[in-house]
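Weekly structure sync, notes
Attendees: PL, DS, HV (note-taker this week)

Item 1: Solute carrier family 35 member F6
DS walked through the input record. Source organism listed as Oryzias javanicus. Sequence as pasted into the shared doc:
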Amino acid sequence: MAWTKYQLFLAGLMLTTGSINTLSAKWADLFSAKGCHDNPEHDFSHPFVQAVGMFLGEFSCLVVFYILLFHDKRRPEPRMNPGQSFNPLLFFPPAMCDMTATSIMYVALNMTSASSFQMLRGSVIIFTGLLSVAFLGRRLAPSQWIGIFVTILGLVVVGLADFVSGHKDDTHKLSDVITGDLLIIMAQIIVSVQMVLEEKFVYKHDVHPLRAVGTEGFFGFVVLTLLLIPMYFIHVGSFSNNPRQVLEDALDAFCQIGHKPLILLALLGNTVSIAFFNFAGISVTKEISATTRMVLDSLRTLVIWVVSLALSWEQFHGLQVLGFLVLLLGTALYNGLHRPLLARIPWCAERMNRGEEEGSGGERDRLLDNGRAQTAEDT
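Item 1 (cont.): predicted structure, written out as tokens:
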């Protein structure tokens, strides 16, 4: 069935805004400017300020939800389902997971390349699959287990590519690249915990997706904004790249933005893109399919990689090509993208109909869709 113009628009919007989200965050990291009190020019290294901006973008989804709801109620026959009433505090634990994972990923993005950052985020399916078996009682199909092992292999290849490039690239130190990659994978463990919490405690309620994203964004924005105050006084030594060597110096970030307003453009790009990315992702799942959303998310990695190479933000490494293809294969197997091909083979179709995918397909898609990776993607 051919896509409508609206479906094509949604797919393009998701791919574009998802790519801008990572690229704008990396663009901000590449700036350098003077800080407060005439501090010498230094790199813009403020991951927690960037994370606050990301949550502001998610929070805006809640505003959009109420605008759409208000507009719908004025119709003679309202069509929008606002969902049942719920306790907003249900979203607090997953929001804290989101906040922690996002902050870690922004720290990691400062240490490694944008393409590796996006590729390594694919490791979320490993931990999501394992945790869903352990805590949700889900049974994974054989193809999903194969997908997990293939993804692990892909991560090893991407890690080797970063290890090799770390010896040749002066942009990042080898130790920073390895640390950044490990932090990204650590963050995916937290993201998978967030997904399981949402599936077990939140999404059994009928909550509108925009309202869910916006509520988590609200908690993340408020809590992380308040945490910027103690972070201003916590000294972490050489681990921090800001002049005062504290965990986060928000005042220094604002001073740098004042000296170089282009940084603000990069931060706004990150904030606005995450809002549109969430809207587009939810709409793609509703209007087309969850599988299409997974495919577009994989294409986003390719776009980020190509743009980074075109802008000379990183160098081309053949191992990354292999790593990307292996990760793509692992994601495809885990998400069942091979099933339409196998369905054409009679004996495979018969086995699939016998229940190989019982208890895994629809629920798994729902689990992954509720997790964003990709919001936060993600980030």
